Amino acid sequence: MKFEEISRAFKELGHPIRLSIVKRLIRAGFQGIPVGTLQEELNIPNSTLSHHISSLVHAGLMMQRKEGRTLFCVLKYENVKLLQLFLEKDCCVDEYLEVKENLLE
Amino acid sequence: MKFEEISRAFKELGHPIRLSIVKRLIRAGFQGIPVGTLQEELNIPNSTLSHHISSLVHAGLMMQRKEGRTLFCVLKYENVKLLQLFLEKDCCVDEYLEVKENLLE
DNA sequence: ATAACATTTCGATAAAAGTCGAAATAATAT
DNA sequence: ATATTATTTCGACTTTTATCGAAATGTTAT
């Protein structure tokens, strides 16, 4: 993943719907979660959801697996992890910080 | 930082220029770096740079400190760290991964 | 006071992203 | 074959971002 790709991936996380999708996909594990289920949970039109999913796929943050007529969305954990490492290694020098682990509500 | 703010912050990192700024600010430490220096290094028009800086400030990723007629840009490390923690805690369950530490070029 | 410097605001324009109904595709079941 | 279900594509539209020259603002030096 090079700089432009990292940046593109962050942009993907920069939309509440897509960030919700990603967050939901974590819980779904490797089995993933059907598009339809996502749609019910997020309660948005299918075309809108499809658009965001496609965007996430192109950015390398998720992949899809088809079973019958159901499409499962699966997070690409390794790439999310890369983003985390980018922030951790390039952005956060620990001496600079005293971080409270529970700041994330 | 709540969900919407996290998402907003990721969006900020989702532009190559702004991600470059953030990356540069890390090296600058708490002293920060003058807007003018950033401009020379990035080689973009001042109005464009100013626009992106303003955006980063509003998203809580950096702050500014004035010294004479020079404005220093300083990263808000703690918020970048929060993003990293968000990805680490909410998105990356370590059992799911074997991560190569050197994947970031 | 005026000039030189650092940076922002304005304003106009161009480009990209987001939204969603309706039609199209694909898979399975009857 | 036809109907049903799951999901995507199309197309039109609205909203948001990005870009950048030029003018304005604020700061220090002369």
Task: Please give a quick description of this structure.
2 copies of one chain form a homodimer. The first copy, chain A, is of the alpha+beta class and 105 residues long. The first copy, chain A, starts with a helix and ends in a 14-residue tail after the last helix.
Notes on the structure:
Two copies of one chain form a homodimer. With 105 residues, the first copy, chain A, is an alpha+beta fold. Chain A has one domain (3-104): Orthogonal Bundle (Arc Repressor Mutant, subunit A), CATH 1.10.10.10. Chain A has five helices and three strands; from the N terminus they run ααβααββα. The first copy, chain A, has helices at 3-13, 16-28, 35-42, 46-58, 77-91; strands at residues 33-34, 62-67, 70-75. In chain A, strands 1-3-2 form a three-stranded antiparallel beta sheet. In chain A, a hairpin with a 2-residue loop joins strand 2 (62-67) and strand 3 (70-75). The longest helix of chain A has 15 residues, at 77-91. The radius of gyration of chain A is 15 Å and the shape is globular. Chain A binds chain B through residues 1-4, 6-16, 19, 22-23, 26, 29-30, 75, 77-78, 80-93, 96-97, 99, 101, 103-105, and chain B through 1-4, 6-16, 19, 22-23, 26, 29-30, 75, 77-78, 80-93, 96-97, 99, 101, 103-105. The structure holds a DNA duplex (30 and 30 nucleotides).
